[in-house]
Amino acid sequence: MSDNDIRHQGPSGNDPVPDAVVVEKRSGFSIVWLIPLVAALIGAWLAYKTLSEQGPVITLAFREGTGLEAGKTKIKYKALEVGVVETVQFGPDLSDVIVTARMNKEVERHLGQDSRFWVVRPRVGLGGVSGLETVVSGTYIEVEFGGGKPARTFTGLEQPPIVRADTPGHRYLLLSDKLGSIQRGSPIYFRDIQVGEVLTTQLAEDKRNVLVHVFVNAPYDRLVRDQSRFWKTSGFEVSLGAQGIDVKMESLLSVLLGGIAFDSPAHDESSAPSQNGAQFRLYDSVADIAESSYTRRDPYMMYFEGSVRGLSVGAPVEIRGLRIGKVTEVKLDVDLKTGNIRVPVMVELELERILPPDLMKQFDETYGALRAEGRRPGMEHMVKRGLRAQLKTGSLLTGQLFVELDFYPDSPPLELVYGGPQPEIPTVPGALEAFQKTALDLLDNLRKLPLDRIAQELLGTMQGANRLVNAPEWRAAIRSLDATLKDVRTLAQTADRQVAALAADAGKTLGAARNTLESVDPEAPLMIDLANTLEELAAAARSIRTLSDHLERHPESLLYGKGGPAPGAKK
Fold it and tell me: What's the pLDDT tens digit per position in 162-172?
């Protein structure tokens, strides 16, 4: 039996089995391919969502990168994280540190070109201490979003801004001739209350002024008016007055950082506050504000022939102790023909200090035409009456000089001199200069004396006196006089003893006579004569005692008499 026979037989082995016919049936897309397709769509959606939710990348440029680390340093706004640093590397010329950072999506629309970035790290300065929280949390970058066109590249600030952009208040610009002690962070005061701070300082484009940008917090910015005046506060002021030393001191912060104060006129309270960015003049002191109110200034010139050491520009010009102007220039004038040296001093006299407003108006009406021609009629009249300028010492400690105007009626008559750069006021020598001139005149007179001849005559006189004193005759006369004085002393002592005995005997005699006379009639002629005799005896006794006392003190009177030797007599 062959294989075919066996294959085609039925189960019983008798019936054949039919052959299977395979029919191929083709259909559409298989469901199996849906799985990778769905996975691809989900991946694309996830990628799109990740990219769409990812924030922008910004570039920051700092001068140094202290504390900045890629992947660690955060960018914060109001203490909340809004970004993270991705890379930190040098710029092309190694002068800057370039930081790239990824910002959060929600802050993208706030990244305007006026946005500011700075590094927050511990800072210690005269204005205070900041950034201490970074000791624990680490250094981070602070951002302050600003307006303007969208930007992705920024230059980082080296120091944190003093005033945030959202702080209510106004900014102002102050112009000053010099900066002084004012610096970034210096306080702004209104009647000793701190109301703001100095933002920045810089030199103006004309190189003649210093620009000081300040910020006044609200609501104090309403106090700034167009007529407000700003001035510098030194913080420490010492003045010497009639009542002693007066010391004024502002706050310690003002002493360390300097300060600025301002005030507004009381009559200006109804005017509107100044606009943001308004400009004001910054004066050196309150006194300078008062000086600026005097606008009428007449220039004059004065010549001083002596030394002007101690006279500087800005020195006051006074009359009777009241300031009426200041010195504007001090220079040297040399006449090459004669060799004379003079010092011209230029001054400005402020008429508003001298005349009140009503007299100023009357003065202008009377002398306006003459003043327009360059004349100074008021000064001409005062110079004719003896007005002169003189240098005087303002302080013995510093030696500073000032110009004093006063009347000297005894001075030679002079007039105001025209023809030079400015009208010239006559001058008189100062007190020290006059003293020096007197001393020089005295020395000149002494120099004219024949001192050599006087010295020779004086020497001859001394030699003659020496010969006279040392002469043998003089010595013999002295020895003779000494012997005579000894004899006179002995005679005086003897006379004193004899006078004493005589006085005792006279006393006894008078006593006996008194006893006798007591028994006689006092009115008898004999008693009267006897009384007179007794009085004369008593007077004689007194004279004798006086003589003895005088001889004891002046024994030489026996030789020369009571008046002593005559002047010029040889002893």
Answer: 888 778 999 99
* 8: in domain: no
For the chain, what is the radius of gyration of the CA atoms?
59
Helices first, then strands: H and E counts in the chain? 13, 25
**Do residues 145 and 190 both lie within one domain?**
no
Domain co-membership, 301 together with 286: no
Per the listing, tokens 């959606």 go with: 45
pLDDT tens per residue, range 497-516 = 776 777 677 677 767 766 76
> Same domain for 75 and 151?
yes
Tens-digit pLDDT profile for residues 345-366: 999 998 888 777 788 888 888 8
- Give the Cα-Cα-Cα angle 279, 283, 285 (nearest 5 degrees): 150
Same domain, 331 and 423: yes
CA 470 to each of CA 177, 327, 474, 485, 565: distance values in angstroms, whole numbers, following the listed order: 85, 72, 7, 22, 21
Check: CB of residue 426 under 8 Å from CB of residue 345: no
Outline where DSSP puts E strands in 275-362.
279-283, 297-304, 316-319, 322-330, 333-334, 341-350
When divided into structural domains, the chain yields a total of: 4
Residue 463 to residue 63: CA distance in whole angstroms: 96
Task: Let me know whether 150 and 239 are in one domain.
Answer: no
Closest CA to 291 of 333, 323, 253: 323
Query: How far apart are alpha carbons 319 and 392 in whole angstroms?
Result: 12
pTM: 0.53
Question: Whole-angstrom Cα distance, residue 556 to residue 481?
Answer: 9
What integer is the mean pLDDT of 487-499?
Answer: 73
Say which residue the tokens 């006085």 belong to: 503
Q: In the predicted model, what is the mean pLDDT of residues 116-120? A: 92
245 compared with 333, residue with greater pLDDT = 333
Residue with tokens 């302050």: 144
Q: Which residues contact 270 (CB under 8 A, 6 or more apart)?
A: none
pLDDT score, position 243: 44
- Name the residue among 495, 490, 489 with its Cα closest to residue 556: 489
Does residue 282 share a domain with residue 362?
Answer: no
What length is written for the chain? 571
Q: Could you say which of 428, 461, 484 is where a domain stops?
A: 428
pLDDT at 534: 75
What residues make up the domain containing 405?
297-428
Whether the CB-CB separation of 66 and 121 falls below 8 Å is answered with yes
- Domain boundary (291, 320, 337) is at 291
Same domain, 275 and 327: no
116: burial class by Cβ within 10 Å (0-12, 13-18, 19+)? middle
Please report whether residue 10 resides in a domain. Answer: no
Please name every residue paired with 280 in a beta bridge, in sequence order, or none if there are none.
174
Residue 453 lies in a domain: no
> Does residue 201 share a domain with residue 260?
yes
Kindly give, in sequence order, each residue whose CB lies less than 8 Å from that of residue 109, ignoring residues fewer than 6 positions away.
150
